Amino acid sequence: MGLRLFLLLIIVMAIAFTHVSILNSDIVRFHLTPGRTVEIALAELTLIAFALGAGIVLLGTFVKDAMTSTKMWREKRLLAKKESATKKLSKAWNLLYQGKTSAALETVDSILAVIPESRSAILLKAMIYRELGDYIEEVKALTEIKTNDPSNVDAYFMLAEALERSGDTDSAIEVLTPLKKQEDYRKIIEKLRDLYIKKGDYEKAHELQRAIIKKKGDVKSEDRDISDGLKFELARYAFETGNIDEAEKKLKDLLKESPTFTPSYILLQDLYLEKTQANAAMDLLISGYRKTKNPINLIKLEDIAIEQEMPGRLLEIYSNVKSEFENDFTLILFYGKFLLRLEMVDEAMEQFLKAQNIEPDNASIHIFLAETYRRRNRFEDAVNEYNKAFAYKRRYLVPFACDGCGDTIIRWKSYCSACQKWDIFRIDYGDTKKIEEIREEAMQKVPLPD
Q1: For residues 335 and 315, what is the distance between their CA atoms, to the nearest angstrom?
Q2: What is the distance between the alpha carbons of residues 192 and 177, in angstroms, rounded to a whole number?
Q3: pTM confidence score
Q4: Per-residue b/e over 32-63, b at no fewer than 16 CB within 10 Å?
Q5: What single DSSP character describes residue 133?
């Protein structure tokens, strides 16, 4: 069809040329240069001009088609490269999961060489650097994501977490602070609160926590625990900076709001001791045990009794409260432990045997019974009890274990930095093997004198 149209066009042009030639037989002088002329028929000149115009149009069309084809070829080639790079992304993830971080990084770099703006590839690169422990490069990659997409709140959040891992808490706070007024991103406020806690700026953390509770409406126990912890830290700061009256008021208010929050009792008894009010401190601690059942109150009671040379006062307290806790294993155990410390061996044994009736398989009881038998020169009975427990060194302390992460310590703390929670350390008597493992781990952290 195209060929026929082309032939028809030639015939039409030939007829037109013949017609023009017949009607225009004049010869014209055409100047090529100032000194050179050519005589040509008018019809021929018209045909040549038409041919030149058509040639120029055809050449322009050819050039345009060539450029379009080249562009399409390049786009197709780039698309093929991008598709290949996208397939490589899956391979890079697999390499990372397999622990082949160097190979994964090399693959990601090859992807970014083709698609430098690929958010997924940059994010994977950041994760690879996190796995390698190169937090500086991780921060650089996440900063690039934030720069390329400034409206992406998740990018700010991930960058803040990376800065936190690198130890730059201040920069992490700086990244998130502009976003804290966004209503839809409560996690930003909570993260900022946690960063301020990590930094030790409890005043700002408490302000954010109050804002969180106000927005939530329905306050969960976890939120109350954090609020209690922050109020406690503000009270402790007041105490440590010499504002005793302010600290006392904050602690008493906190005890009214949360009577089962153990750290308040411990800090307030320190405050009473600072004011030389040992009796008030001891009364507070036994009240604390009534409310919380946390043995740290009994440990602190014993410390005061020994340091202040008031053993009789503690014996009086135990005598008054033991009727309230007839089957309280912990109270009986610590009462017996204190009696043993005072060399009241027979009375101590009575308490330990009573505790054994309550929890016959408890490792702690075997230790104390063994020591009691040893002091009565009943060595065979002592050995039997030791065999039921584990090797005993001069002083036995039950370690504390975190309910959250399982971290173990010898000396009680109000706060677990790993879990970022307060009032979470508890005595876990456990079975013999577990107690032995916990104690060995705790002893490595805080060696005790022989």
Answers
A1: 8
A2: 7
A3: 0.67
A4: eeeeeeeeeebbbebbeeeeeeeeeeeeeeee
A5: T
- Residue 274 pLDDT > 50: yes
C-alpha separations of 309 from 67, 208, 279, 305 in Å: 99, 45, 12, 6
Q: Are 27 and 40 in contact (CB under 8 A)?
A: yes
Using the structure block, give the residue that is written with the tokens 């602690």. 251
Say how many C-beta atoms besides its own lie within 10 A of residue 240's C-beta.
Answer: 10
To 5 degrees, how large is the angle CA 270–CA 276–CA 281?
45
- Residues 178-210 pLDDT 10s: 887 665 567 888 889 899 999 899 999 999 888
Residue 88 Cα distances to 8, 77, 121, 401, 437, angstroms: 56, 16, 10, 46, 47
Residue type, 394: R
CA–CA gap between residue 191 and residue 197 (Å, rounded): 10
The two three-digit tokens of residue 380, written as one number = 């065979």
Cβ atoms of residues 363 and 390 within 8 Å = yes
Report phi then psi at 412, rounded to 5. -60, 140
pLDDT over 70 at 11, yes or no? no
Q: Is 350 exposed, middle or buried (0-12, 13-18, 19+ CB in 10 A)?
A: middle
Handedness of CA 156, 159, 165, 167 (dihedral sign): negative
Crossing angle of helices 363-375 and 379-388, in 10° steps, is: 160
Phi-psi region of 449 (alpha: psi -120 to 50; beta: other; left: phi over 0): beta
How far is C-alpha 180 from the geometric centre of its chain's CA atoms? Answer: 18
* 86 Cβ contact partners less than 8 Å away, ≥ 6 residues apart: none
Tell me the two tokens of residue 215.
Answer: 């927005």
Tell me the CA distances in angstroms from 243 to 72, 237, 238, one per residue in order.
Answer: 77, 8, 5
273 pLDDT band (50/70/90 cuts)?
very high
- For residue 444, give the H/E element and its range: helix 432-445
More confident call, 344 vs 41: 344
Mean pLDDT across the chain: 79
- Give pairs for 15-18: CB < 8 Å, separation 24+: 17/43, 17/47
Q: What is the DSSP string of 321-383?
A: HTTTTTT-HHHHHHHHHHHHHTT-HHHHHHHHHHHHHH-TT-HHHHHHHHHHHHHTT-HHHHH
How many CB atoms are located within 10 Å of the residue 319 CB? 10
Residue 261 CB neighbours (<10 A): 24
